Amino acid sequence: MKTIEDLKPLIDMLQEIQHLSSAGALLSWDQETYMPPGGGGARAEQLSVLGTLVHEKRVGEGMKRLLSQWLDLETGKIQGGGSVWDEPAYGLLREVWTDYSKRLKLPSDFVRRIGKAASLSHQVWVEARKKNDFSLFAPHLKIMIALKKEEASYLGYADSPYDPLLDSYEPGMTVKQVVPLFTALKAELVPILEKVVASQVKPKGDFLCFSYPVERQLTFGQEILKAMGYKFQDGRQDISAHPFTTSFHPTDVRMTTRVDEKDLCSSLFSSIHEGGHALYEQGLPPEHFGSPLGEAISLGIHESQSRLWENCVGRSRPFWQHFYPILQEHFSDQLKNINLDEYYAGINIVRPSLIRVEADELTYNLHIMVRFEIEKALIEGDLDVDALPGVWKEKMKEYLGVVPESDADGVLQDVHWSGGAIGYFPTYTLGNLYAAQIFRQAKKEIPELCPQIEMGDLLTLKRWLNKKIHRWGRQYPSEDLLQRVTGESLNPRYFIEALKEKFGEIYQFS
Amino acid sequence: MKTIEDLKPLIDMLQEIQHLSSAGALLSWDQETYMPPGGGGARAEQLSVLGTLVHEKRVGEGMKRLLSQWLDLETGKIQGGGSVWDEPAYGLLREVWTDYSKRLKLPSDFVRRIGKAASLSHQVWVEARKKNDFSLFAPHLKIMIALKKEEASYLGYADSPYDPLLDSYEPGMTVKQVVPLFTALKAELVPILEKVVASQVKPKGDFLCFSYPVERQLTFGQEILKAMGYKFQDGRQDISAHPFTTSFHPTDVRMTTRVDEKDLCSSLFSSIHEGGHALYEQGLPPEHFGSPLGEAISLGIHESQSRLWENCVGRSRPFWQHFYPILQEHFSDQLKNINLDEYYAGINIVRPSLIRVEADELTYNLHIMVRFEIEKALIEGDLDVDALPGVWKEKMKEYLGVVPESDADGVLQDVHWSGGAIGYFPTYTLGNLYAAQIFRQAKKEIPELCPQIEMGDLLTLKRWLNKKIHRWGRQYPSEDLLQRVTGESLNPRYFIEALKEKFGEIYQFS
What we know:
2 domains, 21 helices, homodimer, 3% strand, Neurolysin, domain 3, mainly alpha
C-alpha cells in the first residue's frame, strides 16, 4: 500500500504554506487584541500581501505539478484508488484536491474584487450599525450578494446557488438537507418554547447581573479551562471585542473572551465555548500539521465541540454540582444567598430575545432559522435587499414572537453578511445538533461520565473527544465521522430530547 | 529630472517585501511578549519560511530585472548619475543597490548554514550562561567566528575582515576610523573615571532600590513617553525579558520594557531609551514606507536617538526639574526625604561594574571597547576562542579595574556573539558620540531648549529631531547626515565635554 510517506514533497509544500497562513492568523489575532488603533492600515496591507502569496502557492504551478503525479486534476480521481493507497493517504489526497479545485475555480481577479468589497462593506456595516441606519449598508450588501452569486456560479451547483456557499463552511451539506432538518426542528422547538413561556415557573436571573470583579471572573474561567484540559502551555486567553479562537499550530492555540463586570455569564460561557474550539485545535495531530489530516473537518463539527462544552457540559447540573461551590468561594458576597438549584435555573433561563449572541440554548436555533431563510432567499433571488428590514421583523415575530424596534438590534446585528460569510449561519445549529448526538454517545460509552463530571473530572470526556473526533483531522467527512462516532447519521432527536429533559425539569412541564 | 515617480514598479515591489518583513517582525515581537512557551517550535518554522521568502524576493529575478533598468548591477553605477535623478531618487537607487549587492554576495547555502548555526549557538549560549560554563559555548562560538570570517570573505574587504561586518551595522564605518576614535576616547574617559573614583563625594543610590509598585512605575514611564511625543495611538509598550523596539510601519511602532519592583531605574530609563528608538521609527516618512527613504540609516544613528533621550535628556537636571516632583507624587512614601539634588546624583552614580547593560553613562563605553577589541581580534585571527575567559578578565581589569568571578558575569553576559552579531558593539558607543554632538547642536539652534525641558516641554526637541534626522530615512549616509545636522564630522569632543560638565559638577572636580 502507498502511504503518506509517498507524498512527502506534497506534505512539505503544504506545511510551508500553512506556516505562512499561520503568520497571517497571528496578524489577525494581534489586530483583535493588541494592535494600536493607528496600525490598521498597514495591517490590512500585510494581510493582503500574505494572503495573495498563500493563495498563489496553493493554486500555483508547483502544486499543480505535484498533484498531477497522483491524481487527475480535472476530476480528482486518485490514481489506483483506495486499493493502492492506505486510508490516511487517500483521505489526504481527496481533501487536498477538493481545496485545490475549489480555489482554482475562483478567478484571481474575482478573489481580489470580493476581498476589497468585503473589507469596505464591513467598514460601512460597522458605521451603519452604530448609526442604526440600514440604508447606509444596503448598497454594499447588494454588492456582496451579487458577488456571492457570482462565486456560486464559479463553484457550480446542481440545485440551489446557496449550496456551494454552504458547502464551503460545511462540506457536503445542501439546502435539500437543511430545509427539512430545520423544518422538523422548528416543529419541535416552538411547542417547547410555548410551554416554557406558559410555565408558572419564572427562574430569577438578577443575581447574574450583580457586580463581579473582572479579574476574578477571568481567573475562575481559566480554572475551568484548565479542568477541561486546555493547555495554557500551548495557548493563552486574551480580551477582545468578540470572543474567538485561533490556531497557529496545535502547540499555539489562542482564545479570547470579553468580560463585563455586570454580567457573570458573558465571559464564563464564552470561555467554555471557546475552550471547546480550542481543545479541538490542540487535539489535532501535530505530525500532520499543514495537511488536511491536521485540520478541523468542518465548521459544524468545530461548533459541535464548543456547544458540547458550553451547553451539554457547562450548562448542566452535574458540572455545577462541582463548580458552583468553587464559584461561590470566588464571589461569596454576590452568591451567598443563591443555592445550586437557583443558580442552575438562572443560567438556563429561556426568554425570546432580539440578539442572537445573547440567546439561550433553545431560542438560539430560531435566530439561525430566520437568518438561513433570509440569506437563502437573497442568494436564490427571491428577496431584495431593500425589503430586508421588514422581512426581518416579520420573521422574528413568526419565530420568536418579538420584534426589534431598531435595525441595529435587528437585521444589522451580525457581522457575517457584511464580510460575505453567507452560508455560515446554519453551521451554528448543525453544531448544536452534532453536539447533542455526540454527547449522548459519550454518556453511553462512558457510563461513569456524569458522576465524573459531578466530581469535577472533565478530562475523561476531553480524552474521549480527542480520540473520537480531534485526532482524525479531515480524514473522514463530517457525515462519515458522525456515523463512525455515533453509529448513525445526523439525527436532531437527541438535541430535542436533551432540551425537553432539561427545560421540562426547570420549568416543570413534560 | 527623474524622480521617485519614475521608480514606481520598484517601490511597489519594495513595499510588498517590507510588508512581508513586517509580518515577520510581528512574529518576533509576539515571541518575546505573548507567545505561549509551547509555541516556540512552530514559531521558528514560521519565521524561517517567511525569512526565506523575503530573501528570495529581495535578490530574485524580479528585483534584478527592475534594477537593471536604472543601474549597472555589477558596480551600482546609476544611469545618468546625479544630473539625471533628483536627490531622493538617486539616494533610493544607491541604497537599494547597496542592499541588493550585499545580499547577493552571500550564497543561499551560506545564509541557511549560518541561520541554523546561529539558532543552535544561541540556545547553547543560554544554557552555558545559566550553568556558568564557557566550555559548553566555546565550540559554537568557534563555529560562529569561522562563519563570520566566511561572511567577510564573501562581502569582501580591503583592510580588515572586521570591516564588512561592522559595515553591515554601521555603513561606511571601518576599523581604521574606530581604532583611533576609541583610543582617543579611552585617553579621555580613564582620567575622568579616576577623578570620580577618587572623589570624596559619594552620592547615595539606596533609595532607588526601595519598593516601587510595578504598575505605578509603568504608568509614570508612559507619562514620560507621552511627553516625549511618542504616539500610543501608533504603538504600545509591553513587558519582555530584554527591552527592545520594533516597527511594522510608522503607524505601528512597539516597544517593550522590563520592570523590577526593587529597581526604579530599570524600567524608567529603558522606557526613555526605547522611546528614543521609537520616536525615530514613528518619525520616518510613511509615504516612503518600504523604500530606503523610509528606513533608519544606521544602528549608530538609531542608538544616538535612544541615548540622546536616555542620557542627554533623561539623566539631565533640567528634565528632572520638571519630572521629579511628579515622580515624587507617584511615590511619595519612597521619595519624600530625597530632594532633587540627591535624586539627580543618585541616577548618575558612576561605578565601574561587571555588567554592560547596568553600566553608567561613563563606564559603558569602556565595556564596549573591551568587546570591540576582542571581537576584532577574533575575526582578524589574533585571538583564539579558548583564550577568551582569560583575555576578558585582563581587559576588564585594564579598562574598568574590576574582574568578574564567573564567566556568566563576564564573557558570557551578552547575547550578541551567540547569534553572530559581530561588529554590532561599536554602534553603541558611536551612538553615544553622535548623541552628544547632535544634542549640542540642538541646544545651539534652540536657545530656549533647556528652559523648555525644565518646564516639561519635550516636543520642541522631538520635532527638531523629526526635521533634522528622522524624516530623511536613508537619503543621506550617516556621515553626510551628521555633517548636515551639526556642520562637522563625528567629533568625540562633545561627548567628553558633556561628561566632564555633568560629573565634574556631581563629583566636584574640574
